[in-house]
Amino acid sequence: MGQFFTKYFPNVVPIWSGDGGVTQAINETLYMTVLTAVVAGILGIVIGILLVLTDEDGLLANQPFYFILDKLVNIFRAVPFIILLAIMTPVTRAIVGTGIGPTAALVPLIAGTTPFYARQVQNALLTVDPGVIEAAEAMGVS
Asked: Which of 25, 40, 81, 90 could lock onto 113 through a cystine, CB 3.0 to 4.6 A?
């Protein structure tokens, strides 16, 4: 099978193997995707819970903190990713040490994805039926 490709597609074989090949690109894509999903998911859950807790009806109502956090989430959600990538280049260089490569792409990917997770968590928690919360409190859940 390898001889078939070498004979009929001699220019394609180097692309699919070796350094800089398709397998390396797939590995880098999976690395960026999985790490972004995990880190942004954790940060999004934390920020989403903070948004619910510090809301005016929340358990830890803190209007100034909620206002700032809510506006940050809205701003980061509104900025297109390519602009966020360019704006965050100095921050990326400070954190990672370089502005290019898959590891450098993680910083803007996480910054761009976290607000979406946070808003989803906030909306999910705010749509819980108050009767369910009241029943849980009646059963002794704190």
From this structure: 40
